[in-house]
Amino acid sequence: MKRTLIAALSTTALLLTGCTAQADAGGRLNVVTTTEILADLVQHVGADRVNASSLVPAGGDPHSYEPRPADAKRVAKADVTFTNHLLLEPQALIKTIDANSDKDAPNVSLAEAAESYGAHVIPLVENIGLDVLWLGLRVRGDGKARGATRTSSIELTATKLEGPGQLVAYLTESLGKPDKYFDSTDGLGQADTTTLPPAAHTHLNWAFTKPGTYRLTLRGSLDGKPLGQGTFTFAVGVEPHTVKPADGGPATVLAEGHTDLTVDLDSGQVYAYSDTKKPGATQTQVAAGRVVIDVPNKALVPVPDDQRFAFLGTPGTQLHQLPQAVLGKHVHGEIDPHLWEDVANAKAYVQLIRDTLTSADPDGKDTYDANTKAYLRELDDLDRYVRTKLTTIPEGRRQLITTHDAFGYLASAYGMTVAGFVVPNPAQEPSVEQVRKLSDTIRNLKVPAVFTEPNLAQRASVLIQVAHDQSVQVCSLYGDTFDEHARSYVAMMRHNADELQRCLGVAR
């Protein structure tokens, strides 16, 4: 599946044209990247022959950055553009690049093309540990036969709801602001549409105002052209095995794990794509008409005392809600896009960057080759440094608890384990149960430290509070941005290795 997904995503990824680019007034290639990390890698390869800059500003979140008109102008003037992609960047930024980059200029998605240079990709593992179903939305298939590209828009529209109460499916953004996707309280219409890029999925809160049986119909479309539709059944506060699914046949009850209501670009169907949590099972497709989604009474929560959530009802009123779990907009694909947390993958990026710059500036080939050889030696030293530091950490203490799923590659490459937990809704105080679960995770794993990212401090308040309550250190790791203390990829990774060793390596 991994190779199929990479191949599908890579169809527009690597455009090495062989045309000589126009240099800037100083004789340098103008290279635009999406992130500071990529710009740093490019600058090391290109040195004085390139001017590399990032669209996402210093300290910015590449997952949620909204492009500005000035960004489109910068892209239009670029001789080369580099994205990471694999849905690291929001689709609006990818669209800005693809729509404005010169058709003769290389436009390279590094994560999607680096596998041929030896990069190792891994699935995005989301270990949240909810005690109710984790329900989201997903797009599957590449849609080539229907003309889909990486900038296509896939719409899921809620067209009909039957049930005793109302349904609001909404996303809570990083600062607590709700964004309604489907809202039946004022009737369903075209406004009840959410848009995803190809091969993506996202997480939502699903709130039901009264117990009973609900049926929700979702319609899919690709760039405005209709696909199929499906009707999903929800058992809200009632025994799910007594509820008939929409087609009246045998039911598949979904009560745990991770499920997405899915539109398939290849088949045109709308169905449930579910992690069954059974031994040896992988994610499986379930016809919409056969699905019964369990929303149990343990999913009861009070409406927040916050005017922003007035659409849910009177503050304190109980409603059934399947939680979003991951804080903020979290649109991503099946492959973890944070490849650079494994230094070996950064080496693959560097070699791909070298070849791309050479295609745009053949006269610089010798310079790019020499710079790359020198930088690869530096990265080999860095890889040894990280590995040596982390091997000193006792195996029982190699647990990572963070606020962002950016460290899967670091864990995989260097013998760490990522532990997951529920991120509470920032618009209300975390429940006693949520705090207890996080406290139990820290206590049971005997972790001496938890880790936050400098640019995501606002996502870490509960983690920090629980860590203090458990007398656990709060330490810092860099995921996908720099700050004033780490202004290069090498500095960032050396900090991560030092911090992990400092915080986990020695019993206190």
Automatic annotation (TrEMBL):
SUPFAM superfamilies per the UniProt record, alphabetical: Helical backbone' metal receptor (SSF53807)
Signal peptide residue numbers: 1-23
Source organism superkingdom: Bacteria
InterPro entries xrefs: ABC_LPXTG_lipo_actinobac, AdhesinB, Bact_metal-bind_prot9, Lipoprotein_PsaA-like, Surface-anchored_actinobac, ZnuA-like
Keywords from the UniProt entry: Metal-binding, Signal, Transport
Subcellular location: Cell envelope
Pfam family membership, one: ZnuA
NCBIfam families: anch_rpt_subst (TIGR03772), choice_anch_M (NF038134), P_ac_wall_RPT (TIGR03769)
Family from the record: Belongs to the bacterial solute-binding protein 9 family.
Stated name of the protein: Anchored repeat ABC transporter, substrate-binding protein
Organism placement in taxonomy: Bacteria, Bacillati, Actinomycetota, Actinomycetes, Propionibacteriales
